[in-house]
From TrEMBL:
Belongs to the small GTPase superfamily. Ras family. InterPro entries: P-loop_NTPase (IPR027417), Ras-related_GTPase (IPR051065), Small_GTPase (IPR001806). It catalyses: GTP + H2O = GDP + phosphate + H(+). It is an enzyme of class 3 (hydrolase). Pfam families: Ras. This is small monomeric GTPase. Its EC number is 3.6.5.2. It comes from the Eukaryota. Keywords: GTP-binding, Hydrolase, Nucleotide-binding. It comes from Bubo bubo. SMART domains: RAB, RAS.
Length: 212
């Protein structure tokens, strides 16, 4: 029964013939989430990148995003070592000639996740703070497992920075054209109360991105 498993998926035989349970890496997904921030209803589209894309794909995804949470795991030094490169890549790709001189880069937040795993820690808080100071970017250490509130702060910060930059004023956001690649990525409603009215902002989240 496991012969039909996709490459990269581990198939576990089930109790019946022609039945199996597959343990696959999660598919790349855009999560739609709605939140009220500063009294405004905000619709987020959050791309959780798979982390194995080629440079063209990563470029498309960076172009699509309006703001970026560059997330590493405090238990994984390699993911931390990727942060600086990704931040430079984001700035480089968004440094379009259309941006007037002196205009700002898209909001980027550096996030150290899994701070609850204190005994497995490989990246200190100080390391994270020093990097964020060097790159002049906001920094948060969070545990998505333990704290919903800490996670919300990351997205609030990105939203508030976008509003501060004045590219989008409340009620006026218009989605830019998306590439074929981005259209193919499935969307999943993270909230049943989401509707099509209001603004929609896109955030790219890079986690444990491994370079080619
Ligand atoms: N203890 C702890 N575990 C976490 C936390 N955040 C995520 N995890 C766990 O880490 C594992 C990976 O989480 P994912 O959300 O799949 O993260 P990912 O970066 O997409 O995963 P990989 O691509 O497999 O590295 C899962 O087992 C999560 O439950 C956290 O804050 N604390």
């Amino acid at each position: 029964p496991s012969s039909s498993a996709e490459p990269g998926c581990h198939s576990l035989p089930g109790g019946f013939s022609h039945t199996h349970f597959s343990v696959c890496p999660p598919p790349e997904m855009i999560y739609r989430h709605m939140a009220v921030i500063d009294g405004e209803m905000v619709h987020f589209e959050i791309l959780d990148t798979a982390g194995q894309e080629d440079s063209l794909q990563i470029e498309e995804k960076i172009k699509w995003g309006d703001g970026f949470a560059v997330v590493y795991s405090v238990t994984d030094r390699c993911s931390f070592d990727e942060v600086m490169r990704l931040c430079f890549l984001i700035n480089h790709i968004h440094a379009s000639p259309r941006r007037s001189s002196g205009s700002e880069q898209p909001p980027v937040v550096i996030v150290g996740n899994k701070k609850d795993l204190q005994f497995d820690r490989m990246v200190s808080t100080e390391d994270g703070e020093n990097l964020s100071k060097a790159l002049k970017l906001p920094f948060y250490e969070i545990s998505t497992r333990d704290s919903y509130e800490e996670t919300v702060v990351v997205f609030n910060t990105l939203y508030q920075e976008l509003m501060r930059q004045g590219h989008f004023s409340p009620g006026s956001f218009k989605r830019r054209t998306v590439s074929k690649l981005m259209e193919k990525i499935p969307r999943m409603q993270a909230s049943s109360t989401l509707n099509s009215a209001g603004r929609s902002l896109s955030f790219n989240s890079f986690r444990d991105y491994i370079p080619e």
